[in-house]
UniProtKB/TrEMBL annotation:
Keywords, comma-separated and alphabetical: Flavoprotein, FMN, NAD, NADP, Oxidoreductase
Lineage of origin: Bacteria, Pseudomonadati, Pseudomonadota, Betaproteobacteria, Burkholderiales
SUPFAM superfamilies assigned: FMN-dependent nitroreductase-like
The organism's place on the tree of life at top rank: Bacteria
MF GO annotations: oxidoreductase activity
Cofactor: FMN
Keyword check for Ribosomal protein: no
Residues in Nitroreductase domain copies: 16-159
EC number: 1.-.-.-
Name of this protein: Putative NADH dehydrogenase/NAD(P)H nitroreductase LMG24238_03254
Organism this protein belongs to: Paraburkholderia sediminicola
InterPro entries: Nitroreductase, Nitroreductase-like, Nitroreductase_HadB/RutE, RutE-like
Family: Belongs to the nitroreductase family. HadB/RutE subfamily.
Amino acid sequence: MSNAIADVALDVLFREARSYRAWLAEPVSDEILREVYNLMRWAPTSANGNPARILFLRTKEAKERLLPALAPGNVDKTMSAPVTAIIAHDLKFYEKLPQLLPHDPGMRDLFANAPELVDATAKRNSSLQGAYMILAARALGLDCGPMSGFDNAKVDEEFFGAGKSEPNSTQEFFPEGHIKSNFLCNLGYGDKSKLFARSPRLEFDQACTLL
């Protein structure tokens, strides 16, 4: 236990951390978003595949492109957040395996010839990377509001070119429509005065078994 982090850090990351719906009018710099990524990128992923791709929406214009895909209950919290991250996954993540897993050159072909494995691996591991993003953001002083409640197909079409014949403004970075959205996460400095009372969680004996 000598490497255990301080109790106050556990409070920041877990016990006192909340999912925010309302935000203070304080900007989030590009520099801190880069810091968030540079921490979250150390998340473990299958075959070191790193399938997550993140689009940080920072401007009013970018948020308005997202607006038609949002469930009504997620509109205000998203439009008022300083940043909304689209956590997505690349279904051709295996093309980067020669860079990321140079000691095992056969892994690229293993995934390239197994589309069902690619789909499951990309979804699972981008979710894991997204969870690390939340922890990284909290560790750097940001608050988070992760959410579902949006139309994935609309997001994929608008931002990642899925089904579009004309290129869009993000296709240079996310080409060919093989990026698929997973979940959204608002980032900023949360308004604590708008928090609800914290909901309970399951106890150990309700959720876990020791064998």
